[in-house]
Design goal:
The protein contains two helices and nine strands, in the order H-E-E-E-E-E-E-H-E-E-E. With 138 residues, the chain is mainly beta. It has one domain (2-134): Immunoglobulin-like. The longest helix is centred in the first third of the chain and has 9 residues, at 2-10.
Length: 138
């Protein structure tokens, strides 16, 4: 499926595709295990080069402060911020945003290099993380 999407991208047109995200705690060190909690889900739709993200989270130990889409050099590897999402400043709530991607960002999305990260007051380096993965069609 990814190969077909990359071929369509090269031809200048991408059909609408859906991505799913499972947001889970990722403590950076042992000291953070007590403050990094919660879970969430999100979905994203890529229509041509417009990415629309919607999701929810719950169970944080402190209110969320920011939510962002990052791009790593490879799946599972941290990277820089691309976009800021709208986030509920609470221990549970929603995230959302709509962004116009560059062709390179679309390619990296299709390769599984983009992820969502939610920060909270007690976990300013990141509380919940999740990679945007193409939804498997059944």
């Amino acid at each position: 499926m990814r190969r077909i999407a990359l071929l369509l991208l090269a031809a200048g047109s991408v059909l609408a595709q859906t991505f799913v995200v499972r947001l889970t705690p990722v403590p950076i060190d042992a000291a953070m295990r007590a403050t990094v909690t919660g879970m969430g889900t999100a979905s994203a739709t890529l229509n041509d080069r417009t990415l629309t993200v919607n999701g929810s989270f719950e169970g944080l130990r402190s209110p969320a402060t920011i939510a962002q889409i990052h791009q790593g050099p490879a799946m599972g590897v941290r990277g820089p911020v691309l976009f800021d999402l709208t986030v509920s400043k609470a221990t549970e709530g929603s995230i959302s945003g709509t962004f116009k991607l560059t062709p390179g960002q679309v390619e990296n999305l299709l390769k599984g290099k983009l992820y969502i990260q939610i920060h909270s007051e007690k976990a300013p380096d990141g509380n919940l993380w999740g990679w945007l993965l193409l939804e498997e069609k059944r």
